[in-house]
Amino acid sequence: SSTTVGIVGGGPAGLMLSHLLHVAGIESVVIDLRTRDEIEHTHRAGILERDSVRLLVESGVSDRVLREGHEHSGIDLRFGGVSHRIDFQGLVGASTWLYPQTDVFVDLADARLRDGGDVRFGVTETSVVDVTSDRPGLLFTDADGVAHEVRCDVLVGADGSRSMTRLSVAGRKEYFRQYPFAWFGILCEAPPSAPLLIYTRSDRGFALISQRTDRVQRMYFQCSPEEAVDDWPEDRIWSELQARLAGEDGFTLKEGRIFEKTVLPFRSYVCEPMRHGNLLLAGDAAHTVPPTGAKGLNLALADVRVLAEVLERALRKNDRSALDDYTERALARVWRAQHFSYWMTTMLHSIEESSDFDVRRQLGELDAVAGSRAGATYLAEGYTGWPHG
Ligand code: DHB
């Protein structure tokens, strides 16, 4: 069989691309190794930039984010046991939205179903072939065990940080940075402890207090990459989190039953270029950011917005040279976001080897950001997201 665009990966990047192509009148097929249920129940990030919200609503995916998401007009930066409000609305006139990635995924999967999209979850034996030819191919076996070969004009690899499509980008240069820590993430049954997210630097390490609903909260604390979740019974988690948040204002977290514990990987990665022949990469397949600053999902959505535009030019106006612009346009945002995520990470985390000088310098940096309109404005701009082009 054949289609116009073959997309590997049915997460937010792949599904949003398929949706945007549909709006432009371009047919696509999306495949994913995971079942819809598996994706729906994998907890990921929770913060959408202003333009990610606009994209969901204005492209016609769904306006559920506006009804069920929570607008956040800022964050609290907490250090030295004191909270400092970074007021996004006051500084840059923008907000972010608390709306879990699992909900973004559900909205996108439902929109593709609604619009008659061809999305195959739970496939096996996927591969991409002939990526430099005019008719590259997408091979897979569907959930019923039937083997398929779909010939396409263009293939897109949106298959996440352990991408297999990326391996077909011959001659790629890969940029890496590892960090000597990870995040321990929990979900708990408790009311919110504060109206906004709290990004905390403490001598015991970083902690982030996020939210999900009125009754479920998401929290993270810096841990070792080798940390074993079984070493952390509920009491130990709560006393560690409380200790990291403690300060002269007497702030305490509202505790509750913890029903999910995971250690999150932590690294920075970029693959360049994001294209080889008629194969283009999008989202985590091309770049990973550390989670501090919640840029990963937002970057993936920004990628596919550019990609949909480029593909529309290339396919409908039959101008293949349009594909040449993709890497440069996407990477401009990617490297800004790489810096932002690295900066938020290094400003807030503790490193075992740091000297007394490093620790004081870090506090000086936080003071300079929180205490200066210019410093706080940079944070607000990056966090709410640079406008989509
Ligand atoms: C969440 C995750 C992040 O990495 C972040 O910076 C903010 C919020 C979250 O899961 O809610």
TrEMBL record:
The residue ranges of the FAD-binding domain are 3-340
Q: Which InterPro entries match?
A: FAD-bd, FAD/NAD-bd_sf, PheA/TfdB_FAD_monoxygenase
Q: Name one Pfam family in it.
A: FAD_binding_3
* Domain of life where this protein originates: Bacteria
Q: What keywords were assigned to this record?
A: Oxidoreductase
Q: Which PANTHER family match?
A: 3-(3-HYDROXY-PHENYL)PROPIONATE/3-HYDROXYCINNAMIC ACID HYDROXYLASE, FAD-DEPENDENT MONOOXYGENASE
- Name-wise, this protein is 4-hydroxybenzoate 3-monooxygenase
